[in-house]
Write a structure and sequence with these properties.
By secondary structure, the chain is mostly beta strands. The chain has one domain. About 10% of the residues lie in helices and about 50% in strands. The protein contains 1 helix and 7 strands; from the N terminus they run E-E-E-E-E-E-H-E. It has a 5-stranded antiparallel β-sheet with strand order 6-5-4-3-7. The protein has a two-stranded antiparallel sheet with strand order 1-2. The chain is globular and about 35 Å long.
């Protein structure tokens, strides 16, 4: 794996400019919006249908509402929080 670029967004260290392999996405991982808007999302499920992986996620302030995006679209919108 190549070296990942890490930057701070809203006080979190996040991976930017990288699309993870679909198989490397992890349930319960936390992500922040790439545009710098506030909020944290958590992946609650990943489902494979045909050739697509769908990521189901919720915002930390509203865990009752679940959103879905295909894995590529999700990663274009959100950046993975790392330690």
């Amino acid at each position: 794996m190549s070296k990942l670029t890490v930057e701070k967004i809203n006080g979190f260290n996040v991976v930017v400019g990288h699309i993870f392999e679909k198989e490397d996405l992890v349930v319960n991982s936390h992500w922040v919006p790439a545009d710098g808007s506030l909020g944290v999302v958590k992946i609650v499920a990943i489902e494979k249908t045909d050739s697509l992986y769908w990521v189901a996620y919720s915002y930390n302030y509203d865990s009752k509402k679940i959103y879905e995006k295909d894995s590529f679209s999700f990663q274009c919108r959100y950046c993975l929080i790392v330690e």
